[in-house]
């Protein structure tokens, strides 16, 4: 396991995340480069897992698919003004990044029947933020994957304007930048 600087003790959430990240061998060379960057940032102790005081920090998200992996559930993000996977900040009450991703997915979709596909991430994405995000300047997102029944009742939360299923090969025009490329990498990770 990667060793933190001697003056830092890893929190349980950081140690768990480092173990999960080290166990993952991404299919994409770009994801492997990002994995190395994430490992380095995770060695800074608990701080990157909290939204304050760092302006750049980890976030957690969830790519929710139907059983056939041909439909993906997206939300229309109010601040970003685009369709994207569900997710958000890691909270102090979260015991792991995976738990944060699923908590956010449930909060933003109302789905209670999510089934994780893996414990390991399927997507890493660093994206700069605009001025509408207070002190945050960049999110280092960690994406996980889950399955949900297409007929399950979904809801729209306060953080989004809509939540809807989309065919993975016919995404809406106003998806987040590079989302279509990221989604294909995720599907490759899942063997779809």
Kindly report the name of the CATH homologous superfamily.
Nucleoside Triphosphate Pyrophosphohydrolase
What is the count of β-strands?
Answer: 8
Main beta sheet, described? 8 strands, mixed
- Indicate the CATH topology: Nucleoside Triphosphate Pyrophosphohydrolase
Number of helices: 4
The appropriate CATH architecture is: Alpha-Beta Complex
Mean pLDDT figure = 88
| Helical coverage, percent range | 25-40%
Distance between the termini: 30 Å
Q: In CATH's first tier, which class applies?
A: Alpha Beta
Low-confidence stretches: none
Topology:
Layout: H1 12-22, H2 29-42, E1 56-65, E2 71-77, E3 82-84, E4 86-89, H3 97-109, E5 115-116, E6 123-128, E7 138-147, E8 160-167, H4 179-189
Parallel strand pairs: 1-7
Antiparallel strand pairs: 1-2, 1-4, 2-3, 2-8, 5-7, 6-7
Helix pairs in contact: 1-2
């Amino acid at each position: 396991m990667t060793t933190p600087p001697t003056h830092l003790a890893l929190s349980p959430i950081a140690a768990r995340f480092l173990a999960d990240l080290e166990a993952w061998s991404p299919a994409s060379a770009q994801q492997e480069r990002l994995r190395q960057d994430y490992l380095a940032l995770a060695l800074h102790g608990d701080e990157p897992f909290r939204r304050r005081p760092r302006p750049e920090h980890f976030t957690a998200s969830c790519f929710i698919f139907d059983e056939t992996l041909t439909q993906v559930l997206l939300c229309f993000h109010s601040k970003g003004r685009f369709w994207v996977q569900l997710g958000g900040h890691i909270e102090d009450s979260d015991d792991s990044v995976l738990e944060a991703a699923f908590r956010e997915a449930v909060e933003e979709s109302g789905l209670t029947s999510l089934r994780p596909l893996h414990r390991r991430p399927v997507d890493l994405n660093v994206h700069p933020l605009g001025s509408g995000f207070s002190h945050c300047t960049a999110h280092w997102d960690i994406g996980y994957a889950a399955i949900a029944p297409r007929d399950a009742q979904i809801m729209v939360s306060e953080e989004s304007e809509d939540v809807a299923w989309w065919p993975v090969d016919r995404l809406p025009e106003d998806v987040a930048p590079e989302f279509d490329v990221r989604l294909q990498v995720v599907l490759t990770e899942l063997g779809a």
